[in-house]
Design brief:
The structure holds two protein chains of two kinds. Chain A folds into three domains: 8-55, Uridine Diphospho-n-acetylenolpyruvylglucosamine Reductase, domain 2, CATH 3.30.43; 60-174, Uridine Diphospho-n-acetylenolpyruvylglucosamine Reductase, domain 3, CATH 3.30.465.10; 181-290, CO dehydrogenase flavoprotein, C-terminal domain (Enolase-like, domain 1). Helices cover 33% and strands 23% of the residues of chain A. Chain A has eleven helices and 14 strands. In chain A, a hairpin with a 5-residue loop joins strand 12 and strand 13 (212-220). The longest helix of chain A has 24 residues, at 267-290. Chain A is globular. By secondary structure, chain B is an alpha+beta fold. Chain B folds into three domains: 22-30 and 494-643, Aldehyde oxidase/xanthine dehydrogenase, molybdopterin binding domain (Aldehyde Oxidoreductase, domain 4, 2-Layer Sandwich), CATH 3.30.365; 33-142 and 216-264 and 271-304, Aldehyde Oxidoreductase, domain 3; 308-482 and 646-799, 2-Layer Sandwich (Aldehyde Oxidoreductase, domain 4). In chain B, helix 16 (520-532) runs parallel beside helix 17 (560-587). The chains are: A alpha+beta, B alpha+beta. The A-B interface holds A 1-5, 45-46, 104, 190-195, 263-266, 268-269, 272-273, 276 and B 125-126, 129-130, 133, 297-299, 664-666, 704-705, 707, 709, 717-718, 722-723, 725-728, 730-731, 787-789, 792-793.
Amino acid sequence: MYPAHIESYYRPTTVAEALAAITRQPEGDSMFLAGGQSLMQAIKSRMVRPTSIVDLQSVAELRGIDQANGLRIGAMTRYVEIAEYEQFPAAYAALRDAAERVGDRQVRNRGTIGGSVCWNYVASCLPSVVLALNGTMSLASADGSIRDVKAKDFIIAPLETARREDEILLCVSWPKPPPKTGSAYKKWGLVTDALPVVGMCVSISLDDLGKCRTAQVAVAGLADGAQIADAGGAALIGSAGDEASISAAMNDVADSVETHSDHWADASYREQLIKRLGVEVTLRAFARARR
Amino acid sequence: MASNPQKTNDSWMGSRLARKEDLRLVTGQGKYISDIVLPRMLHAVFVRSDRAHAKIVSIDTSAALALPGVVCVVTGDDIVDELRSMPQPVLLPNLPAKYPTFYPLCVGKVKFHGAPVALVIARDKYVAEDAAELVEIEYEELPVVVDPEAALEPGAPLINEDHDDNEIFSMTFTGGTTQAEHDANDKEVEEIFQNADVTIKERFRVHRTGLTPMEPRGVLCDWSDSDGLTAWITTQRPHIDRLAIIDLLDIPADKVRVIAPRDQGGGFGVKAPFFRENVIIAHMARKLGQPVRWIESRYESLMNVGQERDQINYLEVAATQDGKLLALRNRGIADNGTGETGVYWGFVMPFLGAVELPNTYTWDKADVKLRVAVTNKACLTPSRAFGHFPTRFAIERAVDMIAHKIGMEPSDLRRKNLIPHLPYTSTTGEYYDSGDFVQVWDNLMSHIDMAKFREEQQAARSEGRYIGIGFGTGVELSGMASEVLVPMENQPGYGAASVRLDPRGTALVFGGDAPGGQGHETSVAQIVASAFGIEPQDTVTTTGDTATTPFGSGTIGARGASYFMSAVHNACVEIKVKIARILAHDLGISATLDDFEFVDGQVVLRSDRSVKKSFRDIVERIIMHPINMPPGEVGGLEATVYFEAAKPMICFNADFCTVEVDIHSGEFKITKWVSSEDVGNVINPLIVDGQMHGAIVQGLSNTMFEEFIYNDQGQQLTADFENYKIANAADMPDIEVTYSPSPCPHTPLGTRGIGEGRPSSVPGALSNAICDALLPFGIEITELPLRPGAIWKKIQESQA
């Protein structure tokens, strides 16, 4: 576990400095380092070989959770900060569900939401959460421009996102939550700190009668990475939050996604986990939406 | 340490003393092999095979050699004429087997994914890693064998080509020594099966799993023409490593010193073999005249060591309708891997596993046969519960299956068949020296009300909840007597210790074993303090250095409290006899050791307690002022004692656990885990508790989470902790360890060595609990690991 040769290391304190540092390097050879909980392992195992590292840890403007205008979570906000943040509206409570169970204590103390969604590992929690919650990713370039990308357009495939290598993810943000909206997330892994074999995130908005008006379901742990299960969202519309209708919707989710077999779970057990977790998580999302 | 409990009855024995070593270990003051840095030290990295079975066509080292900072790149062909091949006699068990001939680096072909093909030595680790990537190896694929049953088929591709098939070892364990005697025994067993009320026959499969010490392996070697070789090795048996290096490198015996660093991050058996890496690092240090260090990466470690279990047992059990076990018949097939590891060669573990198959139960007859197959996998390395994890899983499951078949409580069936009196020789010939299995069992059962549990179980089922209880028992070797260890590993079993008193009244203890976290410094200090009436902080223990310690076969097989500590105690007694003799002379009285008491830093005359001398003063007098001595007496206070017990010794345990299974997901929660232990007289209960907790957790982790996986092409897919999953504290139940000890009659302090085999009653107990919970579905678990997905599938199938 010794990395290939690294020419340079920068630790900027502003986004502008960070972008300047990355553009100074030949393309592809320089990488931003967020919390380092995935990237450092990849570097040490030589899976990736940056010649230059721009470490974002000291960029204060990338950190923090702010609800002045909707919800804005800085890209360098650590899992522990999300897990301990008690003011999430019910609509975005899934973020906390996910963050408080990512990895182990050490990982949560270092790892960041921005690092997670930009790395977009095949089995990870946060990408599915930003998908289900329809987050907006704000990307800054060295020329000063900022572009906003919706999560569904940002998350492309495992280890692949819409971020260009010379762009910094500034934050993930959401508008002020619509009323009667709730979300929840849960993962299943063999041990407490495992990556998700399956993770389920559900966001629900209710109408005045308490029936589901809109819903979005995302699944983590699939061979193609985190993805939205449109069938689940569609099937939940009109549900009163009863277990029968939710269960039927989650059966649709399990049928609509491609599950794979690996040494943690075979395809049929993954489907079962999708159903089981899906029902549990959807019930919780309903309960939160009703509050 | 003010919070420490004080000694009781003028003895530190049985005191829950906080461990002396822990302060340095938890404050970063431990000194591990990576902390040892020598001037001019070079760094070694192995280039390891990415194929499981392939001919080496060519190796191009030119690009690697061209990298600035690279000192040399060595391949198998470079060294075949420079050192001897393994095996060498010191590394051979006295068991007939088809031992493979091999070198530290692969010669001609590679036999498993991860095998060392070349060695790069450079001025720093980074350069060495860079150069290792530049070594180009051309392979020609050979057919890969990863299934042990397929490996034993006639015509299977040959892995160790110096032999004519892949069966490295086979043995019949019961009924005499000749074929005729075996046949007669097998016939009797068959007759029992023909006439038995009830029989079961099942294929039990335990996966490849084992132990993963927190600190991987490492070797640092330094050569000087005057002093020879000094080798720091992460090892449980430095004295054996020393002999192996002497023989393999043909270095004069007085020119090799091996040091196991005082602090090692765990061994668990994994560091007990002699490894090929030791030889090549020592060789290169001699050849280059410069210190060379190799520190194993986690990836290498998971590729090469800590892999055990991996066994199929076709087990049959015959019993009467009222639950008397009659006979067992087993055909074991073990997956050995390549067999290229000194001392154990892989098969010694399944050998012992077969021996221990009868466990704690009485059987009229047994027919036990074992075949061990070479495959294209890493060689098995010993892992705590040496060899008997798979066989104990099989036997404990089989006992429950019989109970289910005849409708008897599994706990009642166990109680009925426990060996009632010791000593006892098992059906496979293993000697159980002492203890009381029934008393330990009854202590366990005092922690559960079975009738009440069955009521709760019924009530839960009516609510759609499935709870269950499972039992497991285990008998373990408590150290190994020479009469066991010489045949098994070609090594002596005795414990050896030197105790030397300092003129200032403190004690130095030297032992040839090499602990890796067991707390020897504390246990030894408690024994010495109790013997001399001094404080535990007044003893310093040195282990692992072959230059200063008497010969020991290593920290293996629960030898600590059985053999090593007994030697320590006896050495103290020998010194006390001399002190008493000289003190009586000084006092002008006629007295021997029995007339004196060593207490509170004083040596007191029992018959007149006003007559006493400070321990420090008498020690200083004997060492520093050896005048006016008794006739024929000389000064100095030091003793080296070798301890061999009269009989091989054991310890014993029984466990139960309760679980709740979610039938919709196959997930289960362990709601209670209780153990009952016969550990003999306890030196330090804190340490014994820790041994039991650790062992049970390791057993659970092996059973539930850990699995080394090779695909059809022999590619190892689990060489990191993302894929080789070890239990977290959060995933473990509370463990309630209870004791029902009986003093061991064969050790001077009544102590038993404990903890080595302890994990192996865990998989049976847990599987039995899950099967008990799922009894309405008629599910019998026969394979590990116990994954929720597999349990869920069985529930689905039972409902189909």
